[in-house]
Design a protein that fits this description.
- By secondary structure, this protein is an all-alpha fold.
- The protein has a domain at 30-54.
- Helices cover 48% and strands 0% of the residues.
- The chain is built from 3 helices and no strands.
- It has helices at residues 11-27, 33-46, 52-55.
- The radius of gyration is 25 Å and the shape is flat.
- The chain starts with 10 loop residues before the first helix and ends in an 18-residue tail after the last helix.
């Protein structure tokens, strides 16, 4: 998709772009926030056991684990 510089467009072109965007947004299905929050919470809780941000990285799978110490003599 090409990059459009908004400064180069006429007011009519800008209004047409905004109108097309509004037409797309009107077609979207809207949900209640309370329903969305419940679904997100259920999704997170169902995958909590495999989430490394919650569970942490095991020592043997940690790519950032120090391989060996550095000794300065």
């Amino acid at each position: 998709m090409p990059v459009i510089n908004m400064d180069d467009l006429t007011d009519k072109d800008k209004a047409l772009m905004e109108l097309n965007q509004k037409k797309l947004e009107v077609k979207l299905e809207r949900w209640l926030t309370s329903k969305c929050c419940e679904e997100i919470k259920d999704y997170i809780q169902a995958r909590e056991e495999e989430d490394t941000l919650v569970k942490g990285i095991s020592e043997e799978k940690n790519p950032f684990k120090e391989k060996g110490g550095c000794v300065i003599c």
